[in-house]
Every structure is written in structure tokens, then in C-alpha cells.
Amino acid sequence: MGGELLEAAQAGPDDVVLVWEGRDVMAVRLPQLSESLDHVLSAMERTYGSPLSGLDRRAKQSVVRTLEARGAFAVRHGVETVASALGVSRFTVYNYINYANEQRAREAGGG
């Protein structure tokens, strides 16, 4: 998701300091979640080999399913960001999320 390794002494208040045997050895700076979503969307475009807005409905549903599993919709304005990348409305993204949840429930129920 685009984290950055730092010397422990460079760690800021929002960084994660890794401790080994009681010593601060390294820090990890995680990107803002909204930046991470942009990275994930760019990676998905590379995977599909085209802009996400050009995908068919089934592929867009798959993208939403993957993004939901990665927590993309917990990010502020996540639905809006994804809707824009897919070239669909927020309402459509919510429909895709509901569809994915229904599919998972059917699979978990065995039929």
C-alpha cells in the first residue's frame, strides 16, 4: 500500500515504530488511506490493462468486490473516488457492494 521505511529516529507521531528486544530499530510511515486508495486503483488499472471506466459491468463488480475486501470503502469519500474511477454513480457502487454481499451470503449458505 505504499509504506515507507525510516530510521527509528526519523519517526513522527503517526509512524509505526518497530521494536526488537526493547530497542527501536526502524519505523514505517504509512500513506494516508486516501492516497492508498489511489495507489490501489492505479494498480488495478495496470492489472486490467485499461482505465477502469472502460470495463464491462461484470469486471466493475469484480473491482468493487476486491476493493471492499481491501477496506476501500472505509476511507472517507471512498465510494465517490471509486465511482469516479469506474465512471459510474455512487448508487451503482452501492448496488455492486450489495450484490457482492448477497453472493458471499449465498456461497456461505451453500447455495
Summarize the structure.
This protein has 111 residues and is α+β, with helices and mostly antiparallel strands.
Architecture overview:
This protein is of the alpha+beta class and 111 residues long. It folds into two domains: 30 residues, no CATH class; 76 residues. It contains four helices and three strands; from the N terminus they run E-E-E-H-H-H-H. It has a three-stranded antiparallel beta sheet, with no helix packed on it. Strand 2 and strand 3 form a beta hairpin. The longest helix has 19 residues. The radius of gyration is 18 Å and the shape is elongated. The model has no long low-confidence stretch (mean pLDDT 87).
Descriptive labels:
single chain, 111 residues, 2 domains, 4 helices, 3 strands
Distance between the termini: 35 Å
Q: What is the strand content?
A: 5-15%
Mean pLDDT: 87
Please give the count of helices: 4
Largest sheet properties: 3 strands, antiparallel
Question: Layout of helices and strands, plus pairs?
Answer:
Layout: E1 4-6, E2 16-20, E3 23-29, H1 33-48, H2 57-69, H3 78-86, H4 90-108
Antiparallel strand pairs: 1-3, 2-3
Helix pairs in contact: 1-3, 2-4, 3-4
